[in-house]
Amino acid sequence: MSLRFGITLTALTLLCILASVWSISAGAVQISTAEIINTLFNLDGPKQEYIINRSRLPRTLLALVTGGALALSGAIIQALLRNPLASPKIIGINSGAALAVLLGTLFFPDIALRWLPVIAAIGAIAVAVFIFALAELRPISPARLALVGIAVGFTCDAGVDYILVTASTYEFSAPLVWLTGSLWARGWSHLNAVWPALIALSALCLLLSFRLDLIRLGAAQATGLGMNVRLERLILLGLATLLAALSVSVVGVLGFVGLMSPHIARKLVGGVHRGMLPVAMLTGMLLVVLADATGRVILPPIEVSAGILTAIFGAPFFIFILLTSRSEDET
Amino acid sequence: MTGTKTRPSRKSIVILLLLLALIAGGIFSAITGGRSDTGITQLWGVIFTPDSSLPQSVLRDIRLPRTFSAALLGVNLGLAGLALQAITRNPLASPAILGINQGAALGLTLSLIIPGLTGLSPDAMAVAGAMAAGVLTFAIAGGLRGKMDSMRLILGGVAVGAFAYAIVRFSFTLDDELARSVVRWTVGDIGYIRWPQTRWLAIWALAGLLCSFVLAQRFNLMALGQASAQGLGSDPRITLLLGTILAAALAGISVSVAGPIAFVGLVVPHIARIGFGADHRILVPATALTGAALMLLADGLSKWLSAPVETPIGVIAALIGAPWFLWLTLSTKESR
């Protein structure tokens, strides 16, 4: 495993770097690789400081941290709920965060950007508590849990729609773009609002990843090994919820990243979480950077939201998982 | 059947109440809201002493077609939901949940963006898109092999819907002109409907009602289970096909006129079943009436809730329907 794991990790890291360079170079204005390197490392020669520093660089970095966070969140949720269909979007966490942020901006129009992640976290936690309490309190099949999550998501989406159409003044066109899961017009301020927390939480998740493997043995065995399973589950679920919520607070509802990445990672390095989690994180980073950059190059200067692209690829992926997970269905 | 004495009288009371709600809702919807001063007197005037004064023409040309459209959309979507719930034997089935509404929206969008693509009219494209989405969802659920998995049906439908809707939004991004006019349409809005669309909806509602009546007995047999239906000489696959066509046509036309209004098709048959039991021969007219009444009330609410700004009727439907859906997912039995 270790050789395969090492190769995969290196390859994915390289791919992430390549994709990031492409993401910085691609768009309405093409920037050559030489110019990018000159600008980033402050070398002599032709540079493109304005576009790179003001727009493309923070945006690409944001794509990296949120993609990694969403993927980790999805991987943890899938492991804890033992549900291959679960993801922060499917179980409604993302929509809860979106509704909370929208309510926040509605009631406090001049709220500082750095508070939005906090508000998003409150909404996400509310949904998460509901879903996880349900999963704990009574036996519930994986498919049904996904279904309840989708219903919770619909309910939050209805609230989002209501706020959007009844208060659709000029200031509200920004949330509209934001909700489709877009990195459009995201800058340093957004990045600064979330990156310390996201990186800290992600690191914590990676550190705790071996606990997921113990939990996966089953509650009885894990308890036998001296774990407080309930507490550990709660901590991990809390981490997953926060990761998703913080991402949503800056890039909106980027669906299906948290669903796809763990599955791809499992195909690459197998299901052991110690190895799978970092690979999933890198996969998520790669997916979001690619989605964002692709959205920019399809028809410049028009931008296609990254969330639309992830949904176009993610929904068929979900169906594929649905079709191949017969054995876990209706237990 | 061994009819009891109490049942007909209880039913007729419910029907009476429903009709009253329908009429009250209709008047409520026709006279409230808007900038022009119209009231019950003007409504009276349009019927008995028509003239060409401003309040009367507002009522006649703007309010009334809208009111009728709301009712007709309720009929269409309700019947589509009833057919889908019958053929899938799944209480969670409805045009929006199974991705059929979104499929229709995709078909319509394609025909607007690339007008010469298929040579079909926008309406026909909407129906074709609805049909394609429905068949795809049923295929994912295993319905083509004759055994439909209830959970997979719903999850597959949601995924099909998410996919179709992502492409719709993708298309809007490419076409700025379209995108501007379309934000309200995507949540379901009937504020701009005039008589021509209303007539069109009425024709389809009538046809849908007739077809539903014809299929009612098949739906009843479906409820007994596929094997029993087959034993009684009704091929479930044909029922599935006919029901899908019916639902796709009704949902497709509704979407092409008013946008994808979600949850009406889900909620209306449930309400009708509470009042009228499970016999589809009674459920068909009951669902039509319930759908009309509910949508009229929703239309009234859409003008009143955040006046003077109008809340699109699709948002009202979602605000009522989404929690209902949540409750259904929690309360329906785990087994099929």
Any overview of this molecule?
The complex is a heterodimer of chains A (331) and B (336). With 331 residues, chain A is mostly helical. Chain A has a single domain, classed as ABC transporter involved in vitamin B12 uptake, BtuC. Helices cover 75% and strands 0% of the residues of chain A. Chain A is built from 13 helices and no strands. Chain A has helices at 2-25, 33-40, 49-81, 93-107, 116-137, 142-166, 173-179, 188-216, 219-224, 229-251, 257-269, 273-297, 306-324. By secondary structure, chain B is mainly α. Chain B has one domain: ABC transporter involved in vitamin B12 uptake, BtuC (Orthogonal Bundle). Chain B has helices at residues 6-31, 40-48, 54-88, 100-113, 122-140, 150-174, 176-187, 195-223, 226-231, 236-258, 264-276, 280-304, 313-331. In chain B, helix 12 (280-304) packs across helix 13. Chain B is globular and about 65 Å long. The two termini of chain B are 27 Å apart. The interface between A and B is large, with 42 and 43 residues.
Shape label of chain B: globular
pLDDT under 50 segments of chain A (min length 5)? 327-331
How would you name the CATH homologous superfamily of chain A? ABC transporter involved in vitamin B12 uptake, BtuC
Structural class of chain A: mainly alpha
- The CATH architecture term of chain B is Orthogonal Bundle
CATH architecture of chain A: Orthogonal Bundle
SS field, number of helical segments of chain B? 13
The helix content of chain B is over 70%
Q: Tally of extended strands of chain B?
A: 0
Run of helices and strands of chain A:
HHHHHHHHHHHHH
Radius of gyration of chain A: 20 Å
CATH topology label of chain B: ABC transporter involved in vitamin B12 uptake, BtuC
For the record, what CATH class of chain B applies?
A: Mainly Alpha
Biggest interface: chains and residue counts? A-B, 42 and 43 residues
Structural class category of chain B: mainly alpha
Strand content of chain B: under 5%
Question: Which fold name corresponds to the CATH topology of chain A?
Answer: ABC transporter involved in vitamin B12 uptake, BtuC
Overall pLDDT score of chain B: 82
Total strand segments of chain A:
0
